[in-house]
Structures are given as structure tokens and as C-alpha cells.
Amino acid sequence: MTKSVRQKLAVTSVAATGALLLAGCLQSPGSGSDRGSGADNAQTDGDGVVTILGAFGGAEAEAFNESLVQFEEDTGIDVQYSSDQDFTNTVRARAGSGQAPDIAIFPQPGGLIEQADAGNVEPIHFYLDVPALEESLVPGFLDASEASNGLPYGAPMRMAVKSLVWYPQEAYADGGYNTEPDTLEDLAAIQEEISADGMAPWCMGWNSDQATGWVGTDWIEEYMLRLHGPEVYDEWTSHEIPFDDPRVVEAFDAYGELVFAEGNVLGGTSNVIATPFSEAILPAFEDPPECLMERQGNFITGFMPSDVQENLDNEVGLFVFPRAGSGDYTDQPILGGGDLAALMNGNDPDSIEVMRFLTSPEFGGPWAQAGGWLSPHATFDASQYPDELTRRTAEIVADADVFRFDGSDLMPNAVGGGTFWTGMVDWLNGKPAEEVTADIEASWPADGEEDS
Question: So which residues are the signal peptide here (predicted)?
């Protein structure tokens, strides 16, 4: 959490404490005058039933519910989870009609901040121990849930990691390539070695039907974080600096040195656009491999060949996308995402108790064992993960200096889910970075203009 947020929390806490002392009693967080914005819904308080709305379903919903079984037995609280694929619109409609769930799990920060600014979500410092939360969470995770007043309104209960480079273990080991590059310069040296051995260093695919280009936005976000650090990154994603700021162009240029270099990417840039992101890693597992590395999120293991998935620990290696070795920022950042739990019924002590469990390092054991889930807490018991590859991913994040949410998810949808995607395709097809970033800047919704 930023220094300014800590200061605001301190001022709020002092004011709240003073009011309570004047009232002659100290109450537990989430009760009476210790409440914050007054977020409420039409459901009965204290009835032992807590409703949760989220976007994930299927096996993920089953694993989520399984992770609550012991809690429900211990507390007697009945947690009722509902999945909605149109979550953003559903939670907006339900909140607007007074029918909000007790707890909502937001897959992107933008929807949470919208509801927080509308007064439909309780600030977390009224019922969670924020300093303790900061101690256990990956640094920087709470920043994504800050509303316009600078206070956080949600806490993560699941994490996704993007800053990972994957490779086939056997072929990579046979080449003797560095498995722990520390800087971008080290990574460039690996590229040169692989190229000299007659292979394309990078596997890459951007095709995603109407969403083609999102993979490219991740690359720019990685370079923005590494070259300029989290503060400039935050200014960029919040539009405190324009999209066509020279530092953004610098990030495009840095990525351009990788993606436009002859032979560096399998099939060249035309193949990048034509290749589905879900198939980009497959050539790495051919015999012999056609490319060796892919920078992609932790979900990518689910798209690897079935025989590889059955033996991930022996077939697949990974390392963190490395930091910049020089410049204004040289710490190791992590780009990712996550699901943020938010309290929409500040009057209900049962909902508060559920929130405290959902956002704690103790939540998620059964989900972790089932696979496909990562705790946002560096203090989570990593022995509960099903394989060494997942444990290694968790270790990489725990060792990082700062975590930042996917930038396109933080931007207005017209940009982050629109012109940024299409602009990346234009750039890969040869349009200059200065023109692409200027076009995206021109598409940014004006203050007060409704985002599409």
C-alpha cells in the first residue's frame, strides 16, 4: 500500500477511535459506529447465511466451495455461492436495485472501484487488519482495490501470474542455457545463444479472435514495469500521464528489439498474429523443438500437450521474466491479476467473518490441491500445491519486490479491451509506436464520458 493510503487509513482510524471512545465503548470491527460507508443490502443480517456472487464456475466453483466446508462446519455459517458469467453487469444491476450479494468477488479491479465509488462496498480497514494483511500479501496487491478516495475496498482471494517464462526442460538443458537470468541483458544473451544454435528463441501467438492483441499488451506492461517502475506504471494505467508519453514509447521500442529481431520469434511477426495464444507453446515440445521460450501466465500449462501435463515437473521449466539491470528502477516486479473479494453488506457479522477467512492465508487449501489456484499470500502453505512447478511459481511471486495488476484491466474498457489490443496489432504490422500510442491516447474516454 502506498504511503498516502497509510496516512489516510491512519487519519480515518484515529477519527473512528476517537468517536468510539467518546461513545464510551470500543466495538469489534464491522459493528455499529465502526462501520464505514454504510454499504448494505436487502438480506437479513445475522441469520447465519452469507451469499457470494462471482464469475468463476464449473470445477473452479466446486473447488471454491470445497475450500469453505471446514469453515462452515466450524462456524455454522452457510455460505451460498452463485456463479454468473455476466458478473459485471449482474452485480451492477443488483447493487442498483438494493439486491446486492453479501460478498462479491470481482475478477477485475475496475468493477470493484465503480461499486466502491457508488457507496456499495465497505472499506476493508473497518473489518480487516490491514497491516497484518500487507505483511502476508505479495507487496502491492492491495493497491489495485483503491477507490477514488485512496482507500482499499477489496482484498484478493486468488492470484494469477503473468511474468513467467516457460521452456521444455530437456531441450533447454541440452543447450546449456541459463535457467536463472537475473536481468533483461541476461535474457538477451540467452536469445543470442539459442539463435546461434539454429532455433527461434521465442514461441509467440497473439490470436484470440475479437480479443487478438491482448498478449501484446501484456508485453508492453512488462516493459513499463521494468523500465520505469510501479509509480510510473500506476500513473500510466490511471491516465495521470498520457498513453503516448515518451516512456510508453520507450517500452514499445524495448519490446520491439525482441519481437522484430530476425529469427527471434518463430515464424516472424505475421505468424505471431496468425497463431492462437493457446497454441503458441506447442512447438516447444516438438522433437526437435521449433522454439524454446514463451512468456505467458500460469494458466498456460493447461494448453500444453496432454503427455506434458501429466508430467509437468519433469517436462517443464520456468523462470521469472527478469528485471532491468540498469536505469531508474532495478527491482523485480511481477505482473498479474486476481480475484478481489469485497463486502457489500457491512451490517452483517457473518459476512465479515467470511471475508476475514476468504482473504486470509488459511483459505484455499482444497482449491490449491485440486490445481489451477494460487494464493495471493506469500505466507500460504505451499506444500498444499499439487506439483513443484506450482510451488516454484508461488516462490517466484513471494520473492518479488512488487506486484501490479494487468494494466489493460485497470484502464477503461474502450482502451484496455479495445484500442490497446488493436493498436498492438497495428504496431506489429509496422505502424510506428509514436502513432499507435497517440491513437490510443485519443481514444481514452474524457472525464465523465461513459466507458463502453
Answer: 1-23
Per-residue confidence (pLDDT) for residue 334, from 0 to 100: 97
d(CA 336, CA 263): 28
Asked if residue 185 and residue 145 are part of one domain, the reply reads: no
Enclosing domain of residue 437: 164-332+407-443
Residues 6 or more apart in contact with residue 231 via CB below 8 angstroms: none
Q: What is the 3-state secondary structure (H, E, C) of 235-302?
A: HHHCCCCCCCCHHHHHHHHHHHHHHCCCCCECCHHHHHHHCEHHHCCHHHHCCCCCEEEEECCHHHHH
Asked whether residue 142 carries a pLDDT value surpassing 50, the answer given is yes
Phi-psi region of 326 (alpha: psi -120 to 50; beta: other; left: phi over 0): beta
Which residues are within 8 A (CB) of 316 and not within 5 positions of it... i.e. 6 or more apart? 166, 167, 168, 169, 301, 304, 308, 389
Phi, psi (deg, nearest 5) at residue 77: -85, 135
The whole-number pLDDT of residue 19 equals 31
Place of cell 516447444: 284
Which pLDDT score, from 0 to 100, does residue 23 have?
29
Q: Give CA–CA dist 387/385, Å, rounded.
A: 6
Radius of gyration over alpha carbons of the chain, in Å? Answer: 23
C-alpha to C-alpha distance for 367 and 327, rounded to whole angstroms: 40
- According to DSSP, residue 137 is labeled B
Distance separating alpha carbons of residues 21 and 19, to the nearest angstrom: 6
Could you give the CA distance from residue 181 to residue 187 in angstroms, rounded to a whole number? 6
Q: Is the pLDDT of residue 356 over 70?
A: yes
Phi and psi dihedrals of 93, rounded to 5? -70, -40
Average pLDDT over residues 287-298: 97
157-172 pLDDT tens trace: 999 999 999 999 999 9
pLDDT, tens digit, 9 for 90 and up, residues 48-93: 999 999 999 999 999 999 999 999 999 999 999 999 999 999 999 9
pLDDT digits 0-9 by tens, 363-406: 999 999 999 899 999 999 999 999 999 999 999 999 999 999 99
How high is the pLDDT of residue 193? Answer: 98
Same domain for 219 and 304, yes or no, is: yes
CATH number at residue 290: 3.40.190.10
Which grid cell sits at 159?
A: 492470484
Helix axes 420-428, 433-443, angle to 10 degrees: 160
Is residue 324 one of the residues assigned to a domain? yes
Task: For Cα atoms 195, 201, 204, give the angle at the middle one, nearest 5 degrees.
Answer: 145
Alpha carbons 2 and 368: distance in angstroms, whole number: 30
- Three-class HEC string of 176-223: CCCCCCCEHHHHHHHHHHHHHCCCEEECCCCECHHHCCHHHHHHHHHH
Examine the domain organization and report whether 99 and 119 are in the same domain: yes
3-state secondary structure (DSSP) of residue 434: helix
pLDDT reported for residue 448: 56
